[in-house]
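Lab manual, section 2.4: Encoding a predicted structure.

Procedure: take the sequence of the chain (109 residues), apply the prediction step described in section 2.3, and record the output as structure tokens. A sample record is shown.
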Amino acid sequence: MNFNFRYAEVNNGNCYLRYDDTNPEAEEQLYFDTILETVKWLGFTPFKVTATSDYFDTLHEYAIRMIKNGNAFVCHQTAEEMHLSRGGDSMGPRTESPWRNRPIEESLA
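Recorded output:
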């Protein structure tokens, strides 16, 4: 946090405080208030406070664009399957997702 706020300060920039509220309905206001209070207690003032959920529609549009351009796909691997495909605990060979080469239409669906 010190790096981000100080870097912005010395470069005449702005530092945003962005909450990663990927499930905003499940978050308690106390979570947001405590973080902001701590940031201020440390002597920093965010230029603007935002949340990931503020941009869900935009992020969804980006995802669709990336899928249509062939730069992304929807993967249905479980967490365990993904862990193993990334080499597992032994950091062994990596394998690509079986969903990687699926038709664009399937990912969009």
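Check your result against the sample. The chain has five helices and two strands.
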